[in-house]
Amino acid sequence: MDCRWGTLVSQLDESHPHVPVLLNQVISLLAPRPGGRYVDATAGAGGHLEAILTESAPDGQCLGLDRDESALELCRSRLTRFESRVKFVRDDFRNLGQVLDRIGWGEPQTLDGLLLDIGVSS
């Protein structure tokens, strides 16, 4: 387990999902819409992605990017109901352009929204 998440990841599960502190404000500003394409480049436990996928239903697409495999596993598990609309990539947000090329999404300018919840562990 990556030490930056330490005990936090082991304590989170689907019965006690992490809720981002400013979730409503972030979603209000991001304004996800159906058919949109969004990236959470610091996916973590998936709280923002879950809200973005919900708001962009039925066909919005998301990429969850995180450098921590443990966090991505938790995120993937949390978002299984959206599996046809979300991709997960283990990488650093500094490599976003390369990741978008690799998954066939092109340039960052083609995105409808990009979120980086940068904190001490980023």
Describe the structure.
By secondary structure, the chain is an alpha/beta fold. The protein has one domain (17-94, 102-115): Rossmann fold. 34% of the residues lie in helices and 15% in strands. It contains five helices and four strands; from the N terminus they run H-H-E-H-E-H-E-H-E. The chain has helices at 6-11, 23-30, 47-55, 69-78, 96-103; strands at residues 37-40, 61-66, 86-90, 113-115. The chain has a four-stranded parallel beta sheet with strand order 3-2-1-4, covered by helices on one side. Strand 2, helix 4 and strand 3 form a beta-alpha-beta unit. Helix 2 (23-30) crosses helix 3 (47-55). The radius of gyration is 13 Å and the shape is globular. It starts with 5 loop residues before the first helix and ends in a 7-residue tail after the last strand. Residues 1-12 have low confidence and may be disordered.
CATH class: Alpha Beta
The value of Rg in angstroms is 13 Å
Distance between the termini: 16 Å
Query: CATH superfamily name?
Result: Vaccinia Virus protein VP39
Q: Mean pLDDT, rounded to whole units? A: 86
CATH fold title: Rossmann fold
Quaternary structure annotation: single chain
Briefly, what is this?
The protein has five helices and four strands.
Key traits:
122 residues; alpha/beta; Rossmann fold; 4-stranded parallel β-sheet; 5 helices; 4 strands; 34% helix; 15% strand; globular; disordered N terminus
Chart the SSEs and their pairings:
Layout: H1 6-11, H2 23-30, E1 37-40, H3 47-55, E2 61-66, H4 69-78, E3 86-90, H5 96-103, E4 113-115
Helix pairs in contact: 2-3
